[in-house]
């Protein structure tokens, strides 16, 4: 692992039977095992905010996963969190403890509709920061409004951070989207790379090719976006 002893994943759907991620406990453990095989040793579990999903259920199932990891002597730590779909009541729910922050920190992983307007993203960023949290925009490559010049820098200046999926940089030189994603990483806009793993046969943690490009293409950012910044979340720095 180049410059890293291991990797930290801040976006994953490994909690079983709560959203479109792992369907059962064994699948949760299989995903974790696959992630470990590629160097990931710390994972923040981030199930979607679902209508009837309560933090207590997430925590209970994460504790079950932790117990099984311990039984099987798997070298991986799991932390609580959620991928929060932003809405007018999201901040209130976070403050009430109805939505989970990342690893009980001041950071939240927030997602939007891909077609959300730039003004909406700015307003959400402002409101989240004003409430005392640090927003990390999940899979930032999906937001069409950020494809225009200077949009990243404007949101960053407000205090937001950006997470990109490893899978989004897997394309070759003729893949326009992958080229755009790689350019944003080279420009220093991306703070976190993550798997966004869901289930076996659908968004597995397959990051080997992406890691090879990152270790060569953006050597100066490699440790920051695969470990250091994520570790700051866990430390709540």
UniProtKB/TrEMBL annotation:
Keywords: Hydrolase, Protein phosphatase. Gene3D superfamilies: Metal-dependent hydrolases (3.20.20.140). Coiled coil: none annotated. Its EC number is 3.1.3.48. It comes from the Bacteria. GO terms for molecular function: manganese ion binding; protein tyrosine phosphatase activity. It catalyses: O-phospho-L-tyrosyl-[protein] + H2O = L-tyrosyl-[protein] + phosphate. SUPFAM superfamilies: PHP domain-like. Belongs to the metallo-dependent hydrolases superfamily. CpsB/CapC family. This is protein-tyrosine-phosphatase.
